[in-house]
What we know:
Distance between the termini: 14 Å
Order of helices and strands: EHEHEEHEEEHEH
Strand order of the largest sheet: 4-3-2-5-1-6-7-8
Largest sheet: 8 strands, mixed
Strand content: 15-25%
Radius of gyration: 16 Å
Amino acid sequence: xxKIICFSGKSNSGKTTLICKLCKLCKQLGYKTAxxxxxxxxxxxxxxxxxxxxxxxxxxxxxxxxxxxxxxxKSTILTRNAERETQQKEYFDGISxxxxxxxxKAIELFSDCDFVFVEGLKELPYKRIVVxxxxxxxxxxxxxxxxxVPHGLDSKLLGCLRESLRVRVxxxxxxxxxxxxxxxxx
Length: 186
């Protein structure tokens, strides 16, 4: 069974970069990975050859064994070894029935992977790392099991988060440490 870990944060916070680094490390360690990316505004463009401004879909597919991009009105799944799809069994608040169905299909499709990394879909009830590069957007904190930030970022707020919310703070630039946290504690 796959270990599912979600990543949230504002646009350009470093989520894609971190997920790609984790996939590369997992591959070196002999693990298979897949990525599910949420596109809530239905604006994703798919780039399988890496020629259209190096889109996330290309970066993710290069780094993992498969990628699913789920939007309110469409979904795209890129795999190297497609398997099967399943019917939706549950609904989550804040996500449409279609998005939930597509997420369920993607999870089943990627069931042979050791890790499935999910970008977005903060409403899902899975362990989650919030990524922040320049400043911490506190709207994501209620969903966080951990916070990945560059060393020294907003140390006063980080101290408050550690103490009051018991959120684990990880060094965004320490991919090995983040993987160890995922592997052992999530």
